[in-house]
Amino acid sequence: MIAMIELSQAATTTAGVAILAAVTVTSGGYFLTKVVTGKVPTTAFQTAFFRAGHAHAGVLIVFGLVCLLLTEATALAGFWRWLAGTGVLVAAIAMPAGFFFSAMGKGRERPSRWIALLYLGALSLIAGLITLGIGLLNV
């Protein structure tokens, strides 16, 4: 049986913002169709990074919403609750930004310094997942 979880106001607000942010993934999809149809000239590196950025954005938003819901079932509080509930959602912004921004620029063949966002997003993803996992095991 699935227990109903009552969402806190903070979780409801965060979920609403994440759902609205998901609309931006559609604009990324539109841009990506222009890339793969040759309407926007890119290098193979840029095409790969744009695809990866778009894929990570969509998947991580959905995964982040699931983590936000699961956080409500934990006894975590304060910073740890925030990290468990939003770590994946922060990654859903930072990781795609790292892919997209580091690939921008005419004829780019290697990532720029913006790649740091990808690594910061990965740290947020890992920290959020570990915190949520521990929180769920300690219920």
Written description of the protein model:
This is DUF423 domain-containing protein. This protein has 139 residues and is mostly helical. It contains 5 helices and no strands. The chain has one domain. It starts with 8 loop residues before the first helix and ends with a helix. The model has no long low-confidence stretch (mean pLDDT 93).
Q: What's the gist of this structure?
A:
This protein is an all-alpha fold. Helix content is 74%, strand content 0%. The mean pLDDT is 93.
Count of individual domains: 1
Q: What share of the residues lie within helices? A: over 70%
Unreliable spans are none
What is the radius of gyration computed over CA atoms, rounded to a whole number of angstroms?
A: 17 Å
> H/E order of the elements?
HHHHH
Structural class: mainly alpha
pLDDT averaged over residues? 93
* Percent of residues in beta strands: under 5%
Q: Supply the number of helical segments.
A: 5
Shape: elongated
> Tell me about the biggest sheet?
none
Separation of the first and last Cα atoms: 17 Å
Number of strands: 0
Key features of this structure:
139 residues; mainly alpha; 5 helices; 0% strand; elongated
